[in-house]
Amino acid sequence: SFFKLKSMNFTVLKKTLKNNSVIFQNFTYITILQVFVMLAPLITYPYLTRVLGLELYGWVITAQIVASYCSILVDFGFKSVSAKHVSIHRNDKSKLSEIVSSILSIRLLLWILALTVYATIIYLIPSYRSHYLLFIFSFGLTFNELLFPQFYFQGVERMKYIAILNIVIRSIFVVLTFVFIRSLSDYIYVPLLMSIGYFIGGILSLYVIFYKDGIEFILPSWGNMKFYLKDASSIFFTDVICTIKDKCNYLLLGAFIGMKDVVIYDLGSKFTNIILKPFSIVGTVLFPKMAKERNIRFFRKIVKYVACGIVISVLIVNIFLPYLVEFFTARELDLLPIRLYLLSPIFVGVSGYIASNLIIALGYNKYIFYSIIVTTIVYLSLLGLMYAGEYLNSIHSFVLITVLSYLGELVYRLFVAKKIVNIEEK
Asked: Are 328 and 49 within 8 A, CB to CB?
């Protein structure tokens, strides 16, 4: 009977895998991509800080941050929202042509608007103007949002195109970085190489859509464009609010303190992302189970494991931090701001798991937007108080603002989680 039971379990597992093969395949590709996207910059990071130095590399990071604001405008939330339209009409070539054409046309118009605003900002700020080539080449990073229709591949459930193209592009960039970046004067080529990669990847993806899949580009009507703009607008404004608290510190650090501290802050951010990535994948894997079963006991158990795992990971990184910092920068730096920043994974990790596997999984989506508003208010309030008290004179102040903002988000989401649990357990 034991072998019969094992045989039955294997048969059920085999049938489940077969019935959900596309889901498992897509999840595998996305997991591989997420890991690669996280690791690729870390490969070039030590090399670039050694060749360019912290000051110039801080300028490279700053230019990328400014360009990333333009990327948010160009994408306008389509990456997150528009896949559902493609999924619904995946067998209707005419409708797919309308969707793809409308969104690409909107992106082109937004790209032109972003370029105009971007060029004006660079011209008006003297310190940015002195590195104008760096900022011009950095704007090419928006080619990823302009040309690469991720929403289409998500909608037709062919995530392998996203994974393969991104991995190939980033691999080429890694190789070319070691080939072409040899001296201080080469710093302007760092974003140029990335921009060329994004441009090629975008063109290849459009080739797949318009030639291999037979989608036609048609001139969209203003009515269709207005519909898709309105559909994605809520996500766009959410992304804008998130970006204020997540990336504004980079620009303020460069303006108030210096570009070397931008690199230190960025290093703390990268260590945070490395720590959180495995737990983010765990949340993604368990999301369907939580959404289907609405098992509060299961959620409580897993969130405790997640919290403990993050704390242990933070402790390990802190133990080896002097060696990690020396490896990435080839310098002895003040470790205090990075150690302070490493409190963030604890708050962000638990907060993120509550958001995805309780609030969203159980359908209380409105609280996610509210929590982002709360966090942004906390961030801007702390920033205002620090500025009024003339405390914005060190990297420690900016890191403290970041950590306390994430703590505020966690406190609010814990309050919401308690409310949801009480409702679900009635």
From this structure: yes
Q: How far apart are the first and last CA of the chain?
A: 41
Reply yes or no on whether the pLDDT at 293 is more than 50.
yes
Average pLDDT over residues 277-297: 79
Ramachandran sector of residue 258 (left: φ over 0; alpha: ψ -120 to 50; beta: rest) = left
Helix (H, G, I), strand (E, B) or coil at 152: helix
Helices (H), 76-92: 78-81, 83-88
Rg (CA), the chain: 23
Distance CA(230)–CA(237), nearest Å, equals: 11
| Core vs surface per residue 350-363: b (16+ CB within 10 A) or e | bbbbbbbbbbbbbe
Q: Do residues 265 and 395 touch, judged by C-beta distance below 8 A? A: yes
Nearest to 110 by CA among 236, 205, 242: 236
Q: Which residues contact 19 (CB under 8 A, 6 or more apart)?
A: none
Q: Which residue, 282, 263, 321, is CA-closest to 54?
A: 263
CB atoms within 10 A of CB 426: 5
CA–CA separation, 279 and 122 (whole Å): 39
C-alpha closest to that of 352 among 261, 270, 287, 257: 287
CB 72 within 8 A of CB 240: yes
Contact present, 78 and 105 (Cβ < 8 Å): no
* 3-state helix, strand and coil shares in percent for the chain, rounded to the nearest 5: 85, 0, 15
Work out the angle between the directed axes of helices 93-124 and 21-75 (0-180°, nearest 10). 40
Contact between 195 and 143 under an 8 Å Cβ cutoff? The reply is yes
* C-alpha count within 13 angstroms, C-beta hemisphere, residue 168: 14
Report how far residue 403's alpha carbon sits from residue 321's, in angstroms, rounded to the nearest whole number.
18
pTM: 0.80
Cα–Cα–Cα angle for 79, 154, 283, nearest 5°?
85
Summarize pLDDT for 225-273 with one digit per residue, the tens. 888 888 888 778 877 877 777 788 888 888 888 888 888 898 899 899 8
CB 347 within 8 A of CB 275: no
